[in-house]
């Protein structure tokens, strides 16, 4: 999108006085030398840029996700999407540039030069080249990202910051994939063949293959074994993840519930906007893990689960086709969820848990009803239907055998 010549995909209408105020109060992202016809996205909006495009202005404080795909110099396919998170403050100016050799957005190596450009932005020298942020839809973005803070980004982002499915070439899927996942995985394999020189920041910084361009997501517990516990006790613990949730929050998130929710939102955005299969896997693991809790939603973590259901509602509302707030908003085909029997199983059990509870928090009940209405209308999932599940799947409920219950002391 060219800020002055090309038709914009959204409109920000206001008088000149209000516009000037928002420009000065909002953050700005200046990106030099972006190739024309590049597909550029910020939060829910993605558009094709013109020759005069140099970034975005009026960005509200908080987290944002920038992503882009450049047209091939040889014609045909565009490059894989690359994305990165930013956390901006009021009036902040971030300066980056396009590196034609690496075909990605990079920081300016000279800090003094970057500051000179930032000074130019503050003096309105690039105002005509900066597209206004899509303020009318910022409320939706807030619901998708309100638990993401700078600490979340620092903890989860890959080496160098860039998220790309091209860095997931060695990713081994431990669980079965839906047809939608298989299609994206096959598409990424095709892109790796057509763009053999495509690199991520980690490729150039000597990082290990396990971390190069890959996010550092929290590893959730699988089968839990404890010395002295009977088979029935271990089965009960693995069927109800509530005790494991307490350990995860304490040991991996420092007791901060919002950090887990921040990772939940981070993963969904990296999947929806950044097309990361690894992110979808982490999102699905978190949903299955939390839906696998029985006691926590009704007793110790009621408020947390109300927040989780609210976050999930907005993700599905925004991410599924037919519910997006704009025709330029990234969406996924419903088959990502409708074909996933395992998510469906955990969702059904959770809804039944809430429905059958004798006493329940009003906010949690309302959030559950709202989510159920959306899921039934869009995905067609009903609580009363039977759902068969493969016991070998990593997200299936665990029944501990006598052999599994045996733990040898070293």
From TrEMBL:
All copies of domain AAR2 N-terminal, residue ranges: 25-158
One GO BP annotation of this record: spliceosomal tri-snRNP complex assembly
Matches recorded under Pfam families: AAR2 (PF05282), AAR2_1st (PF20981)
Residue ranges of domain AAR2 C-terminal in the record: 226-383
InterPro entries: AAR2, AAR2_C, AAR2_C_sf, Aar2_N, AAR2_N_sf
CDD domains (alphabetical): Aar2_C, Aar2_N
Protein family according to the UniProt entry: Belongs to the AAR2 family.
Annotated protein name in UniProt: Protein AAR2 homolog
């Amino acid at each position: 999108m060219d800020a002055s010549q090309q038709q914009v995909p959204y409109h920000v209408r206001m008088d000149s006085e209000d516009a000037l105020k928002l420009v000065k109060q909002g953050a700005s992202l200046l990106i030099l030398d972006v190739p024309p016809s590049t597909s550029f996205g910020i939060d829910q909006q993605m558009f094709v840029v013109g020759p005069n495009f140099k970034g975005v202005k009026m960005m509200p404080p908080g987290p944002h996700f920038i992503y882009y795909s450049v047209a091939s110099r040889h014609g045909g396919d565009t490059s894989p999407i690359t994305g990165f998170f930013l956390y901006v403050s009021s009036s902040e100016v971030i300066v980056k540039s396009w590196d034609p050799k690496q075909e990605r957005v990079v920081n300016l190596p000279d800090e003094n030069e970057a500051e000179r450009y930032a000074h130019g932005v503050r003096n309105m020298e690039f105002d005509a080249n900066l597209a206004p942020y899509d303020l009318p839809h910022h409320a939706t973005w807030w619901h998708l990202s309100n638990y993401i803070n700078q600490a979340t980004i620092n903890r989860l982002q890959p080496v160098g910051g860039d998220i790309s499915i091209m860095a997931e070439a060695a990713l081994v899927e431990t669980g079965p994939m839906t047809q939608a996942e298989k299609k994206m995985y096959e598409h990424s394999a095709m892109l790796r063949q057509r763009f053999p020189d495509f690199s991520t920041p980690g490729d150039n910084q000597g990082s290990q293959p396990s971390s190069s361009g890959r996010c550092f997501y929290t590893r959730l517990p699988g089968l839990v074994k404890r010395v002295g516990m009977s088979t029935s006790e271990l089965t009960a613990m693995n069927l109800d993840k509530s005790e494991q949730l307490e350990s995860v929050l304490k040991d991996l998130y420092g007791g901060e519930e919002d950090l887990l929710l921040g990772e939940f939102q981070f993963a969904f955005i990296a999947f929806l906007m950044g097309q990361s299969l690894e992110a979808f896997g982490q999102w699905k693991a978190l949903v299955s893990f939390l839906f696998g809790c029985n006691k926590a939603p009704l007793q110790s973590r009621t408020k947390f689960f109300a927040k989780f259901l609210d976050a999930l509602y907005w993700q599905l509302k925004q991410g599924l086709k037919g519910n997006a707030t704009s025709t330029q908003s990234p969406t996924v085909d419903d088959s990502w969820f409708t074909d996933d029997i395992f998510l469906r199983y955990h969702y059904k059990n959770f809804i039944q848990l809430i429905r059958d509870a004798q006493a329940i928090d009003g906010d949690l009940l309302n959030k559950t009803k709202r989510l159920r209405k959306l899921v039934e209308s869009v995905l067609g999932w009903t609580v009363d239907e039977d759902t068969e599940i493969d016991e070998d799947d990593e997200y299936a409920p665990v029944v501990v055998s006598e052999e599994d219950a045996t733990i040898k002391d070293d």
